[in-house]
Amino acid sequence: MNDFSKLKKIIEGHNSFLLSTHVNPDADALGSELAFYLILKKLGKEVKVVNHSATPYNLEFLDKEKVIEKFDESVHGKIFDDVEVFVLLDLNQANRIVKMEKGFRSFKGVKVCIDHHLDPENVFDNYFGSADYSATSEIIYDFIEQTKIVEIDYEIALQLYAGIMTDTGSFRFDRTNPRIHRIMAELLEKGVNPTTVYDKIYDQFKFARLKLLGEALSSIEIDSTNRIAVMCIKKEALARTGATEADIDGFVNYCLTIQNVQIGILFYELKDGLKISFRSKGEIPVNKLAVEFGGGGHTNASGAKIYNTTIEEYKEKVIKAAQQYL
Fold this sequence. Notes:
The protein starts with a helix and ends with a helix. The radius of gyration is 20 Å and the shape is globular. By secondary structure, it is α/β, with parallel strands linked by helices.
């Protein structure tokens, strides 16, 4: 059980806050981050929201007031000395904020983590959440409901709805339960339009993304067991199609739409190495598979990043490792 009264006391006892989330943020990362920002602003706090990555274009509607800043050492280098509390949301490993990691680790103030992933790094003064939550946005909802620190209005409800909706896979993943639907009903009562939110997140992609998706789908292969599907994206494909790294979000899920496939793997080539995304069905723990390659995540959704290597070097190694989890 989370002691949300402690988080409330941290907020009440300090005036200046810095919020951040993981590289290549999704809707839950941004939704929980912006909802927490709105809570703090309602309480008259000084708040800065600074992320390593730019906000994906299909999620810019969440940041209506354009409060999120993209980290720039020349601009934000001293920000770590100017705030009392540093809050990381939707991640529990400091390396997930990339260029901001050094500033976080040397931060002298209060370090707070609000997250729903497994195996948090032991670097936080205060940790709120657990892997039992469907989304970090659900944690923020519980924090508000249990402490009554503010009232949930339309703006906060929009952020929480977007975060929970996307991290539950539009209510199809395992942690979708009756309570989630009751929460969403309450958020809809605040004026959130589910059709509009879904349209902005999933139905307003640029043509370049669809071109890249076409190439990615054409690359899918099935392993010898017929239960693992593998998708590969070379770095030159982005240049050729005009897509961005953020456009790749969700591609790996197409692997699991193939009959009998239980594990989906996406290999994505980076300038400095390789990113691997893992997805699975049922009780197959791809988070343990990801750990074998220096990564981690959820039971059914995990990832890893390997530097200075290629798809060719790791593809067969990863597939053979994945076969052990079937």
